[in-house]
Automatic annotation (TrEMBL):
Organism: Pseudonocardia adelaidensis
Name of protein: Helix-turn-helix domain-containing protein
Domain CdaR GGDEF-like: 190-298
Domain named PucR C-terminal helix-turn-helix: residues: 345-403
Signal peptide bounds: none
Length: 416
């Protein structure tokens, strides 16, 4: 019987180890040929990606030969096969594709190595070694992809925070001036570029929702928020800015949400949650964020507001805290239509509000029949969508009338 020398801890003789070393190049080539033959997508890879796979395969074969010769508790060099690979290999090959390649390589090992064994004991040792090494390689690949996913997740989180911050800050107060046109253009380009990198469609309509972040398990709640948005076909970007949570929620064409933010509210702490108006696209979302944040500042003045209240439903409160946008919008939505309609609508509304909502007292003050007052108030509702007889709508109309008087420094009734 031929003496093969003292066997390694793995049960493989020096002579067989020498055969493995000599066969390493052919073994790597056989792995690559099997990958190309059994995976149609492999042949479509770019030359640099195929070269990266080849490098990983050759290193893996060399590591196996080194390990089988002095096998210890675990293969110490398996991760090295992936560390020397080009950095973008793990980004451009999916984990599933990598596992398929590892499986093919393991099967090639199982086919080509046993014939090199000197006897049955070595054959069993080689088969066992191949299975164990293949398992460790698969774990090493999973570790590499997990690390890559963590890095990508951290990068995505930073970019997401930048997008949300840009939407909140806007292009700057002078963005409309010709001199600062380049700055505004740069703001839009940067915003769109970062959002596109996160898979957000910058042309998609959206709303901005603001409130306080939930104090308990915020990460779990935000993860659930992302899952719910994904299930409903929406995109979501989230930013925690100190004591406030800002959520950008898309409203894709064909998805009828009606402004319903559903489970988004659950990611917020108890307290006011304000929904900004619908923005046509991402660059226009700053106006939605501005209105939502103004509503959040004014929300304490309306403790009976719904859990999620529209920013436009807080116009009187926003005007009282000095929001110029709300001031102007109250005038344009509640007063300008009455002025444009002419007649006595605005004067009747003012008299009705001054009389405390008393129909007969208003009629006496105007020297008209109470039915005339009723008719004019119905016309006010038709033109503004607000009912003077409703306490909340009456407050909106009263604040709108005050805002109109302050705007021009004169009573709009005199010019109406």
């Amino acid at each position: 019987m031929t003496d093969h020398g003292a066997r390694a801890p793995s049960g493989v003789s020096p002579a067989t180890l020498r055969k493995l070393e000599l066969a390493a190049g052919d073994l790597a080539a056989a792995c690559l040929a099997a990958m190309a033959r059994r995976q149609p997508w492999f042949a479509r890879l770019s030359a640099d990606l195929r070269a990266g796979v080849q490098l990983v395969t050759q290193t893996g074969v060399a590591n196996f030969v080194a390990w089988i010769g002095k096998r210890g508790a675990s293969p110490p060099l398996t991760a090295e096969a992936f560390r020397i690979a080009p950095r973008d290999l793990a980004r451009r090959l999916t984990l599933s594709q990598t596992v398929d390649l590892v499986r093919i390589a393991t099967e090639v090992f199982e086919e080509h190595l046993p014939p090199l064994a000197a006897d049955e004991a070595e054959r069993r040792a080689l088969v066992e070694g191949v299975l164990r090494f293949g398992r460790e390689i698969a774990f090493a690949a999973a570790t590499v992809y997990a690390g890559e996913a963590e890095s990508r997740g951290a990068w995505d989180a930073r970019v997401e925070a930048l997008v949300v911050d840009a939407v909140v800050r806007g292009p700057g107060p002078d963005a409309g001036n010709t001199a600062s046109g380049n700055t505004a253009r740069s703001w839009v380009d940067g915003l769109v570029s970062r959002a596109a990198a996160l898979g957000w469609d910058p042309a998609e309509p959206l709303r901005v929702v603001v409130g306080s972040p939930a104090p308990e398990a915020p990460e779990e709640l935000l993860s659930e928020l992302r899952r719910e948005a994904d299930r409903s076909g929406q995109s979501v970007l989230v930013g925690v800015q100190g004591s406030r949570l800002v959520v950008l929620l898309s409203e894709p064409p064909g998805l009828d949400t009606g402004g319903d933010i559903g489970t988004v509210v659950e990611a917020f702490a108890p307290g006011p949650v304000v929904v900004g108006p619908r923005a046509a696209d991402l660059p226009g979302a700053h106006a939605s964020a501005r209105d939502a944040l103004a509503g959040l500042r004014a929300a304490p003045a309306r403790p009976d507001a719904p859990a999620a209240v529209a920013a436009d439903d807080l116009l009187p409160e926003r005007a009282l805290v000095g929001d110029a946008v709300a001031h102007r919008r109250l005038v344009t939505t509640a007063i300008d239509p009455l002025i444009a309609a002419g007649g006595e609508l605005l004067a009747t509304l003012a008299a009705f509000l001054e009389s405390g909502g008393a129909l007969e007292a208003c009629a006496r003050a105007l020297f008209v029949h109470s039915n005339t007052v009723r008719y004019r108030l119905r016309r006010v509702t038709e033109l503004t969508g607000l009912r003077p007889t409703d306490p909340r709508d009456a407050l909106v109309l009263r604040i709108a009338l005050l805002a109109a008087r302050l705007e021009d420094g004169r009573d709009p009734i005199d010019g109406g």
